[in-house]
């Protein structure tokens, strides 16, 4: 006859996330985050920036699709000895605290397109990459650039040639690791002021002592001003010419 074992109520399907939370603090990522973004709350019960960002990452690492999914897995995540889990409302308010003013570019035809650079969060992204040892000052890296359409029905989303509403951020990655993000309206032409986006990204990478060996992009970067910008910041570049 089979024996039935009574298991502890502490068993959770998200137990693996506790190891990620432990590594988060072992690498002192909390100090990098709070040192960059500052003190969020002066009260004992208030949530600091490291707790907000740790909670966000835990949600997505546990298979969540949006911040509100913290409510679904909250009972399990709260068992972690490493972190305090805030509500989705607190996370949402915190995210808005670091919103950044859009910058607007007007095309020759009079259309206005909005870009959002958020330099503070892009700087934090690179600081975290460096702290985790993903990149090292003095290293020569290979950079990829592309625009990634993000479908959304948010109020400020615009209609894209992708036949959906959304945003169209430009993303710089190094060996698959995101190093810079710049959001843009979903209907923004890919070449429009791309040279400015790349200049800002290159400046950030260079400020952390990274040297760009190879730059790669698709035909959306095939333009004289973009090529001149790229050529001045890397050793070799590969840009696909339109067929």
From TrEMBL:
It comes from the Bacteria. This is IS1380 family transposase. It comes from Leyella stercorea.
């Amino acid at each position: 006859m089979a024996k039935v074992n009574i298991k502890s109520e502490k068993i959770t399907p998200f137990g693996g996330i506790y190891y990620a939370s432990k590594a988060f603090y072992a690498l002192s990522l909390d100090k990098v985050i709070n040192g960059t973004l500052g003190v969020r709350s002066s009260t004992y019960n208030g949530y600091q920036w490291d707790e907000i960002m740790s909670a966000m990452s835990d949600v997505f690492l546990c298979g969540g699709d949006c911040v509100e999914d913290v409510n679904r897995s909250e009972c399990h995540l709260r068992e972690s000895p490493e972190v305090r889990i805030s509500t989705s409302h607190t996370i949402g308010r915190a995210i808005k605290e670091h919103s950044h003013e859009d910058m607007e570019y007007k095309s020759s035809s009079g259309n206005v397109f909005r870009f959002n650079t958020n330099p503070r969060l892009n700087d934090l992204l690179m600081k975290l990459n460096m702290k985790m040892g993903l990149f090292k000052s003095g290293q020569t890296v290979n950079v990829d650039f592309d625009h990634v359409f993000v479908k959304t029905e948010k109020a400020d989303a615009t209609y894209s040639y992708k036949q959906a509403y959304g945003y169209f951020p430009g993303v710089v990655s190094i060996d698959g690791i995101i190093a810079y993000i710049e959001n843009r309206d979903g209907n923004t032409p890919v070449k429009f002021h791309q040279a400015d986006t790349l200049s800002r990204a290159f400046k950030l990478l260079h400020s952390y002592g990274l040297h760009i060996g190879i730059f790669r992009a698709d035909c959306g970067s095939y333009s004289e001003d973009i090529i001149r910008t790229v050529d001045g910041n890397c050793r070799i570049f590969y840009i696909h010419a339109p067929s």
